[in-house]
Amino acid sequence: MIRKFETKDLSEVMELWLSTNMQAHDFIYKDYWVGNFDIIKGILPDAEVYVYELDEKIKAFVGIDKGYIAGIFVSYEMQSKGIGKQLLEKAKEFYSELSLTVYQKNVKAVNFYKREQFMIKQEQIDKNTSEIEYLMVWSK
């Protein structure tokens, strides 16, 4: 079930944020994610966030800021089961255009967004990690 984020979800969502980032971005030092944990925890409640809940546990979430997808995070055991697509479809209900950045080395995510009709608009360097990332855009 997809529902809007509630303040009580913060701890569970942040655990998911940290674990999925470290798993999907093993090419970035774990200290980067750990070091940003408190920053994200502080700003996440102000974002538009939808969670995917199963058996009263949050298994995935999407964070959106005015049409920019800050990320789709799906627990490892629930990946490749259509949950990310469901969360993306939720975002598409509210916006006629969506954008995001994704690391070039995160091939699984790049391919997912391409399948979902996102187009690479720009290649750039993430100043925080020095990794190549793509700016991808979807329009209705």
Describe this protein's structure.
- It is a single chain.
- The protein starts with a strand and ends with a strand.
- By secondary structure, the protein is an alpha+beta fold.
- The chain has one domain: Gcn5-related N-acetyltransferase (GNAT) (Aminopeptidase), CATH 3.40.630.30.
- It is globular, with a radius of gyration of 14 Å.
- The protein has four helices and seven strands; from the N terminus they run E-H-H-E-E-E-H-E-H-E-E.
- It has helices spanning 10-24, 30-43, 83-94, 107-115; strands at residues 2-4, 48-54, 57-65, 68-74, 97-103, 119-125, 132-139.
In the residues, how many domains can be counted? 1
* CATH topology type: Aminopeptidase
In terms of DSSP E residues, the strand content is: 25-35%
Number of strands: 7
Spell out the helices and strands N to C.
EHHEEEHEHEE
Report the span from N to C terminus. Answer: 25 Å
So, the CATH homologous superfamily? Gcn5-related N-acetyltransferase (GNAT)
Read across the widest sheet, the strand sequence of neighbours is 1-2-3-4
CATH top-level class: Alpha Beta
The biggest sheet, with number of strands, parallel, antiparallel or mixed sense and barrel status, is: 4 strands, antiparallel
As residue ranges, the low-confidence spans are none
Which structural class is indicated by helix and strand composition? alpha+beta
The shape is globular
